[in-house]
């Protein structure tokens, strides 16, 4: 391990705080477990230290990438080996030197240890990644300049030619080599990025770079800030959540009702008390899946959340006997038809945006949307129905139509409201969250973790 600024205890405390700030949950007990683990390992062995921290602090595979980035910042590897040889000159290398470096990288891409790859990456960052800053004595470090200089992706043809050496192309051997090279390129890119982050942290401070280096884990990403790439990853999370939500609502439904009176068993039991029916017996309730109605705000202010809820709606179609979905901005339209079984969810969302009648003037109006829903679709609600409302309760200072909402809720078996805004922002500006919350229980639902917690409360 290289010499570090501050004590090991300071590093440990800072590392744990950085994990929490990045959305990786670490309890006090787990932090103490990690500290105790350091008493029984060889601290000079960096990978043993990494493994001890991972075993005590990382509870989900999704947390591991962010953990590794922060570990490399707080406990960086030493810069030795090739980096000690090729410091100094920052002028563009000659053709012969660059060819030599690329040939060396080609060998590492097919066969190298992590230590060898890390040392070469450190040398290349020192060689190509540094640019002078406007401030005196400061340097800027960049990964892209290293990758542009060496262009590892262009080495595939020469590597295949050297490794296969005249053997038939297109077979298993070529496929294996291609996989090795692709994996090697990814390892090199990660090693370069790690060393760039380390160098920036040494100049700007670990805490500063840590805040921007790690994206929150998938279940902690705010629905209002998800990207298209995040939504693609979230699709895999939606179906298990839909199954759990359906199961929880079914259990709640069964607990909340009794079956019909079992007259025969009741009379038979009354014979023991002289014909007086002291104990009544009921038939078990007939099992069935509950019905679900979803009312979803699709306005621009919650567009990312709306995309996620539409994914959830699509998944819920397979879990309930009957699902009807409605979208609204300042008027409401049924969107169930866009989510038929077997349809592509991306295509369904595209058609919904272009064809659904959810907009009159383009400004969100919950009150008018509720009134239109009551006029056109009140028959969708019944004693077996669960109503799920998804939206931020911001209605551009228009009347909230609370009486209409009360009337709609009275028709249902149960109703829930999921709000993607942080609770401290409720009732600010044009939000009427608390007013609606007096009619429908409202829960903060900003990410998958909170949605999961909400589902657990339905037991």
TrEMBL record:
Pfam families: VWA_CoxE. This is Uncharacterized protein with von Willebrand factor type A (VWA) domain. The lineage of its organism: Bacteria, Bacillati, Actinomycetota, Actinomycetes, Streptosporangiales.
């Amino acid at each position: 391990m290289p010499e570090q600024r501050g004590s090991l205890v300071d590093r440990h405390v800072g590392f744990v705080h950085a994990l929490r700030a990045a959305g990786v949950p670490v309890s006090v007990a787990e932090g103490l477990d990690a500290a105790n683990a350091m008493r029984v390992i060889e601290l000079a062995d960096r990978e043993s230290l990494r493994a001890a921290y991972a075993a005590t602090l990382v509870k989900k595979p999704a947390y591991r990438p962010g953990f590794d980035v922060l570990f490399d910042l707080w406990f960086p590897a030493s810069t030795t080996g090739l980096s000690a040889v090729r410091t100094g000159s920052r002028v563009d290398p000659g053709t012969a030197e660059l060819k030599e470096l690329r040939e060396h990288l080609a060998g590492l891409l097919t066969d190298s240890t992590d230590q060898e790859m890390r040392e070469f990456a450190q040398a290349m960052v020192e060689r190509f990644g540094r640019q002078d800053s406007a401030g005196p004595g400061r340097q800027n470090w960049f990964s892209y300049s290293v990758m542009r200089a060496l262009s590892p992706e262009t080495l595939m043809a020469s590597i295949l030619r050297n490794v296969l050496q005249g053997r038939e192309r297109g077979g298993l051997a070529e496929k294996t080599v291609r996989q090795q090279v692709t994996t090697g390129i990814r390892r090199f890119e990660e090693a370069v990025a790690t060393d760039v982050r380390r160098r920036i942290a040494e100049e700007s401070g670990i805490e500063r770079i840590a805040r921007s280096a790690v994206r929150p884990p998938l279940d902690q990403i705010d629905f209002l800030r998800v990207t298209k790439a995040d939504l693609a990853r979230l699709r895999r999370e939606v179906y298990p959540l839909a199954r759990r939500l359906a199961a929880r609502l079914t259990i709640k439904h069964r607990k909340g009702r009794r079956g019909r009176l079992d007259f025969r068993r009741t009379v038979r039991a009354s014979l023991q008390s002289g014909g007086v029916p002291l104990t009544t017996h009921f038939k078990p309730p007939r099992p069935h899946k509950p019905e679900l109605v979803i009312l979803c705000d699709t306005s621009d202010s919650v567009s990312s959340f709306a995309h996620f809820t539409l994914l959830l709606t699509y998944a819920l179609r397979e879990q309930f006997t009957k699902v009807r979905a409605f979208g609204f901005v300042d008027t409401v339209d049924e969107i169930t038809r866009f989510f038929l079984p077997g349809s592509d969810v991306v295509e369904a969302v595209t058609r919904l945006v272009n064809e659904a009648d959810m907009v009159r003037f383009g400004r969100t109006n919950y009150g008018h949307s509720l009134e239109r829903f009551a006029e056109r679709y009140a028959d969708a609600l019944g004693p077996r129905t669960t109503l799920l409302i998804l939206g931020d309760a911001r209605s551009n200072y228009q009347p909230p139509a609370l009486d209409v909402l009360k009337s709609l809720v009275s028709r249902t078996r149960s109703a829930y409201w999921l709000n993607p805004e942080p609770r401290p922002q409720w009732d600010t500006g044009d939000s009427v969250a608390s007013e609606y919350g007096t009619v429908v229980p409202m829960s903060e639902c900003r990410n998958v973790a909170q949605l999961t917690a909400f589902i657990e409360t339905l037991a």
